Structure formats: C-alpha cells, structure tokens
Amino acid sequence: MTPMTAGITPAGEGIEGVRWNILGQIYIPKQLSENSLSWHATFPPGTFVPPHIHPTQDEFLYILQGQLTAELDGQVSVAGPGDTIRLPMGQPHGLFNRSDADVKCLFWVSPARRLYDLFWALHNLGPQADPADVVAISAKHEVDFLPPPDAE
C-alpha cells in the first residue's frame, strides 16, 4: 500500500475518482493509508449492513444526516446528526436505515487492513446479491458476517 499523501479530497468525490455501489449504498473513499481508511456513505431508506465482526479493525461512524439504527452486541440504539458510533474490533454490530430518508455518514476504520479491497470486490454486486457470495467474499477480506437469528 502506498503512503497517504497530503491534500484535499473534494466534497462529493472519492480518492482517484472512486465511488462504490455496495449492496445499494454509495460509498465514496476519502482517505486510505496502512493505518486507516475513511469513506462517506449514503444509506437509502431500507438499506443496511447485517450483523458482522471486524476481527482486526476498530470502526467508527459520524452521522451527518438522518438517523441510523445500530445493533451493537445485541443492544439497539439510534444515532442522529453529530453522533459518533464506536465499534471496537471483535464486537458484533449491524447498521440499519429504518427511516424514510437517506442517512449520510462518515466511516473510518483503523487499521485499513483489507477493507478497501473488499469494497472493490463487492462493488456493483447489486442489492439482490446472493448473501452467500457476500459472506464468502467478506470472510476473505477479514469481515465475518453472523448467521441470521433463525439459523443459530
């Protein structure tokens, strides 16, 4: 991985013009280094990231617009504009837009590990992607999805 360069990533743009469609959500990478990755995310109504674990990364979200429901290790909370969600490595979490408006937030993880490569692998699979494919691809990139509650 190349070292991070100094500069400004303009609003609405990603580093090197990158913009991912991740299962119906738009992710725009803002910064990448060995130590961290940050991205702007838009969650349309009804979209979500199912419960999963990052065994090698701490993850954070800063809510810019809307309300995002976070399931953190079995506890449900709602975060709104100005709130920060802290997700320690190894702790199960899921993120859900259960509102009727877009949620916009800034994510970052530390260290970056393989997440940038995971987003490229998931890019444009579409909202109807086979969950088994998403789980398998994610596991190869150090993100472990949890089985649905009825499968436990």
From TrEMBL:
Domain Cupin type-2 positions? 40-108
Gene3D superfamilies, per database record:
Jelly Rolls
Q: Which domain of life is it from?
A: Bacteria
Q: Which Pfam families match?
A: Cupin_2
UniProt xrefs under PANTHER family? LIGAND BINDING DOMAIN PROTEIN, PUTATIVE (AFU_ORTHOLOGUE AFUA_6G14370)-RELATED (PTHR43346), QUERCETIN 2,3-DIOXYGENASE-RELATED (PTHR43346:SF1)
* InterPro entries per the UniProt record, alphabetical: Cupin_2, Flavonoid_dioxygenase-like, RmlC-like_jellyroll, RmlC_Cupin_sf
Query: This protein is called what?
Result: Cupin
Which species does this protein come from?
A: Methylobacterium aquaticum
